[in-house]
Amino acid sequence: MDFSLQLYSARNAQPLTEVLSGLAKMGYTQVEGFGGVYEDPNALRQMLDANGLSMPSGHFGIDELEADTARYIELAKYLGITHIFAPFLAPSERPQTEADWISFAHRLAQVGTKVQAAGLSFGWHNHDFEFQCEYNGRTPMEIILTEAPEIDWEADIAWIIRGGHDPISWIERYGSRITAVHVKDIAATGECADEDGWADVGFGIVQWGQILSDLQEKSRACVYVMEHDNPSDFARFAQRSLNSLKMLEGV
């Protein structure tokens, strides 16, 4: 299995050229893009090629995609991205009613139709807020998956847990929608306070052995993306997390 890394984790570890060369030396073969790294597509593509890295997935804001879908499709294709994910809603932009969440799901579906027509896949990337409330028995994540049945899901396992849910049950119910996964870990209570309570993969409380097994058996996941939202030492996180995943995979 190839493992990717979300470059948001390295946002404080610039310059990007050194981040990418370091990841390649560690054994990574893929990375996942986000807003800041797309500023100079030509330079980014050259850096990826020079380090033997591919970018099969990338994050793009839903507002950006709605405003100029064609532009971001062209950018994705140039960088080799085949899986586009909308990743986040700021608190002020989050729906507050069931009807608003249904409307948001339809927005995702409309973007998805355009992206899919161009030969790429499109989906939503979750945080915890999609799991923390219910409307008539449905969480916002259920509303998204139900009301936008043609889009994919990049399942961020640790955020599901922080949202108060069991990721195994979500994999069992919606595994057919999962095409990518964010692989990250949660520190034990009271640990890693300077890293917002996140841990290097394999050094926290998330049962990644069982979860990986379930994902491989019950989902369509083909991109596994390492992430840490606030590592105090990016290189340490990237190397230890990759080592952990390779041991779990028996590589």
How many whole angstroms does the radius of gyration measure?
Answer: 17 Å
Number of domains: 1
β-sheet strand percentage:
15-25%
Strand order, sheet with most strands: 1-10-7-6-5-4-3-2
- The ordered H/E elements are EHEHEHHEHEHEHHEEEHEH
CATH superfamily: Divalent-metal-dependent TIM barrel enzymes
Give the biggest beta sheet: 8 strands, parallel
CATH topology: TIM Barrel
For this structure, what is the CATH class?
Answer: Alpha Beta
Number of strands: 10
Termini separation: 8 Å
Poorly predicted spans = none
Estimate the helix proportion, in percent.
Answer: 40-55%
User: Mean pLDDT score, rounded?
Assistant: 96
Q: How many alpha or pi helices?
A: 10
**Which overall shape is indicated by the principal axes computed on the Cα atoms?**
globular
Keywords: Isomerase
Protein name: Sugar phosphate isomerase/epimerase
Pfam families: AP_endonuc_2
GO molecular function: isomerase activity
